[in-house]
Design goal:
Largest sheet: 3 strands, antiparallel
Structural class: alpha+beta
Strand order of the largest sheet: 1-3-2
Number of strands: 6
Order of helices and strands: EHEHEHHEHEEH
Strand content: 15-25%
Shape: flat
Number of helices: 6
Helix content: 40-55%
Radius of gyration: 24 Å
Length: 173
């Protein structure tokens, strides 16, 4: 008999946790994921994507979930890969925060000008010294591509639109 342990709004998160639980030897099932894939707005109405485990494995499943939330597996992954956390260039602290307003700005540009703007999480601030910096190694494209994307493309599309209106205006005299 399986019982619900966790709920998620995103099926991907549920599958990541299910995979970690199966790696720990805990049998897990993801329920209602297809409903959410078909119509994401049903996620809250259905109670989210559910993660089910056997009754005799509830304690170990909640322990794995707590370890995931605390970041224990991330530290193990970084240690296994030989990588260190991103360090502040000013004080060397590893307690950093990612600025999350970039995706909100991208979404605002998309809805106001109907132009999709790519973004990455590359702007950080240090919790210890409050220094802000850009992690250049994490940016997959140079800044000049964004400038061309934001300035040149609207200018080109505007010129095409004006040309189209001037050539095919049905109200010409």
């Amino acid at each position: 008999m399986y019982t619900q342990v966790l709920t998620y709004t995103n099926p991907l998160e549920a599958h990541i946790v299910r995979g970690r639980m199966e790696a720990e030897g805990i049998s897990a099932i993801v329920l209602f994921e297809n409903h959410v894939w078909a119509k994401w707005s049903l996620s809250q109405a259905l109670g989210g994507v559910r993660l089910l485990v056997p009754l005799n494995m509830i304690d170990s499943a909640t322990e794995v979930a707590e370890n995931i939330n605390s970041g224990e597996y991330l530290e193990i992954l970084l240690k296994d890969q030989g990588e260190s956390k991103l360090k502040c260039p000013k004080c060397g602290s590893t307690h950093n925060e990612v600025h999350a307003w970039l995706w909100k700005l991208s979404l605002a540009v998309l809805f106001t000008v109907s132009l999709a703007v790519p973004y990455t999480s590359h702007l950080y601030s240090c919790d210890a010294c409050k220094h802000s910096w850009i992690a250049h190694k994490q940016r997959p494209y140079p800044l000049w591509i964004l400038i061309i994307y934001l300035i040149a493309l609207p200018a080109i599309f505007g010129a095409i639109y004006i040309t189209f209106v001037l050539l095919f205006n049905p109200y010409k005299y």
